[in-house]
Amino acid sequence: MNNKRREFLKIAGLSALAGLGAPAAVNMLVRGPGMAHASSGHGASSEHGGGHGEEKPAGVQHGIVIDVRKFAEDKELARKCIDACHSIHNVPDYGNKKDEIKWIWTEGYEHAFTEHSHYKRNAALHEMPIITMCNHCANPPCVRACPTKATFKSKENGAILMDFHRCIGCRFCMAACPYGARSFNWRSPREKDANGNFKYIKQVNSEFPTRMRGVVEKCNLCAERLAVGLLPACVEACGDTKAMVFGDLNDPNSEISTVLNENFTIQRKPALGTQPSLFYII
Amino acid sequence: MYDGGKIIPGLIVFVGLITFPIWYNAGNAGDVPKPEKPADAKECVEATEFMRTSHMVVLNQWRDDIVRDGGTRSGKTASGDEYSRSLQKGCMKCHVSKQKFCDRCHEYAAVKPYCWDCHLPPQEAM
Question: Where are the domains of chain A?
Fold first, then answer.
């Protein structure tokens, strides 16, 4: 009995050694000595531009150029954009910061562009309302954080979308988003008053759902409007002022590419590497 | 067993009483619900039998197809009528009453789908 076990262990040990060694030996034979590790090396492939620079973007990536000067000229414009978006998407207004749900909102310059120096900046700049929303990043940290794939990058147009059915309310995406673009439903947006009307959704759009308590929500770049050939609500609210220009960033002939080409624009927190799709003309 | 003569008949009576609703209603389906069908629509997106058993599957497929895969938002019925692949904008355009259509069967089957936690039912049910 002991003898058999001893024999078995010998064979098992030898087999394991052979199993570990065989692939390396075979590689040496097939590719010749010195090439065995080439596959895992750092050799730059010429197809990817020598391994330097950013990967060339592919597919459609929708983005928006926001002309802050136009919003400074017309103080009502930002409010119009926000109202248009929030009424279309049944975004509740609780009237307090703690429960606030926002898809699009205004921010002060020093809060929107934290990476930029604010020393000796002109006072007018600090009074400008910087309208902002989800940046629909090309490299979205929220999508990586989501454990259920409730939030994902659209294959069609690069927008960061949410499937509210899947959201479990863990709020990892909120921690991951460097722009504060996501809001959590701490309470039910469908609380009703004595007459049975929604308390916090003033104008109900019966074409769009509400959310429920316990899910995260954010701007969806008007996926439901783009699908029927309309512009995003905020862009439409700006009308002919061209305060917001929407289009495909990857199409060199699109209007947005022309605007980007002709103007100096900045992005929010570009150093984080999220590659935001919102651009600002200051 | 002490007092076996009382305990065992007592248990039999107890089990009989507690299962009374089951054997009393055996073979009786109760009041079968009659969901109100739309008056002016001839056909649904699929055959009635299929819709009766699998409407929830259809809804999930629409959602995944449109939200995830950029699928089309409209479909055609067997006779070629166009419809919107949407609960709020499609189904409820013909089935105008949640209470008289959805709720009747769901209550009978004691299921509580969470559709209406977010989706807005037609005005009457709000």
Answer: 32-281
